[in-house]
Design goal:
Helix content is about 30%, strand content about 25%. It is globular. The protein has 2 helices and 3 strands. It has a single domain, classed as Ribosomal protein L30/L7 (Ribosomal Protein L30, Chain: A, 2-Layer Sandwich), CATH 3.30.1390.20.
């Protein structure tokens, strides 16, 4: 079984390009300080990398 990632939105998407806004929404995040758990897969890692300036990630 793959590990889990705790992803927390720490910055606003206001003023960000539309593709970054869509990526944050696709991760399941809705607002600042909202945290979701996702499986640690290459696709989720890629999405996190794209918006790494907007989110904080905890592994485990």
């Amino acid at each position: 079984m793959a590990g889990r990632l705790k992803i927390t939105q720490v910055k606003s998407v206001i003023g960000c390009p539309a593709d970054q806004k869509r990526t944050v929404r696709a991760l399941g995040l809705k607002r600042i300080n909202h945290t979701v758990e996702q499986d640690d897969t290459p696709s989720v890692r890629g999405m996190v990398f794209k918006v790494k300036h907007l989110v904080k990630v905890d592994e485990g």
